[in-house]
Design goal:
- It is a single chain.
- The termini are far apart.
- Helix 1 links the parallel strand 1 and strand 2.
- This protein is of the alpha/beta class.
- It has an 8-stranded parallel β-barrel, surrounded by 8 helices.
- It has 2 domains: 193 residues, TIM Barrel; 47 residues.
- The chain is 65% helix and 13% strand.
- The structure holds erythose-4-phosphate (E4P).
- The site of erythose-4-phosphate has 11 residues, from helix 7.
Length: 279
């Protein structure tokens, strides 16, 4: 199942695109009202971010007005899909857009019969509003399930876009019910990413990693301190040994006269002479 973002907020769309999970975007006048600015500029920017279908909704209530608005949207980018509400005028506009090769998303679908008609008129996307049905105590998922069955039985090419998603469970249910696409608010996409055990697991792994690295670093520094100490001891031993060797050498030198002066040597030889003289 494809994932669309249901928003006109450029930053949210950029983030979802970076996550590599964005297949398209749906906007509507209420979502646009939240961000303001130029709707056309926003649509152009969204179409630059995602190559997937980007729904731009008409507000005219008559077919001619819808066609006028929709044709202008279609000129903004190649991936624009004109969003048209389910109504008698809407069906006519969808049918004429199809003749012109302009793709449409039929919105505000609340029954499988409405979805069937939108598909027959030529809409590429059919948008049942799951959450708004749930809000009035009707099971929105039934419409998704029925349309999926109808489209499969009759080989209908239109795609079912599960809209008005209120929670992550709606996404799972939409996928299992046979929706081709689910369009979600950014917050629900975030909720789908997170799980308390995942987040806890990441924290624990990080803490264990840090502990292990600290222990390894402490071991390395202890080993190097020990090595330094050994070297120092060896050096001082060597110095000490060298000094005594020098001392020995110096004593030896004194004995064999190599290190002595002529004056030093004289009495020795004199002594020998004296003793030999005495013999
Ligand atoms: C979809 O295309 C609609 O814009 C959207 O899902 C409506 O959701 P809502 O019922 O939360 O306004």
């Amino acid at each position: 199942m494809k994932i669309f973002l249901d928003t006109a907020d450029i930053e949210e769309i950029r983030i979802a695109a970076r996550w590599g999970v964005l297949d398209g975007v749906t906007t509507n006048p209420s979502l646009y009202a939240k961000v303001g600015g130029s709707y056309e500029d926003i649509l152009r920017e969204i179409c630059r971010i995602t190559p997937g279908p980007v729904s731009a909704e008409v507000v005219a209530e008559d077919a001619e007005g819808m066609l006028r608005e929709g044709r202008a949207f279609a000129k903004l980018a190649r991936n624009i899909v004109v969003k048209v509400p389910m109504s008698e005028e809407g069906l006519e506009a969808i049918s004429r857009f199809a003749d012109e090769g302009i793709k449409t998303n039929c919105t505000l679908i609340f029954s499988s019969n409405q979805g069937l008609l939108a598909a027959k008129a030529g809409a590429s996307l059919i948008s049942p509003f799951v959450g708004r049905l749930d809000d009035i105590n009707q099971d929105g998922m039934i419409v998704i399930r029925e349309l999926a069955e109808m489209f499969a039985i009759h080989d209908i090419e239109s795609e079912i876009l599960s809209a008005s998603i209120r929670n992550p469970l709606h996404v799972t249910q939409s996928a299992l019910a046979g929706a081709h696409i689910a369009t979600l608010p950014f917050k629900i996409l975030q909720q789908m990413i997170h799980h308390p055990l995942t987040d806890k697991g990441i924290t624990t792994f990080r803490a264990d990693w840090d502990k292990a690295r600290q222990a390894a670093a402490a071991k390395t520094s202890a080993a190097s301190a020990e090595a330094t100490e050994t070297t120092a001891t060896a050096a001082s031993l060597a110095t000490a040994t060298g000094a005594s060797a020098d001392e020995k050498g110096s004593r030896k030198g004194s004995r064999n006269g190599s290190n002595g002066t002529a004056r030093d040597a004289a009495p020795k030889s004199g002594g020998r002479s004296r003793s030999s003289r005495g013999r």
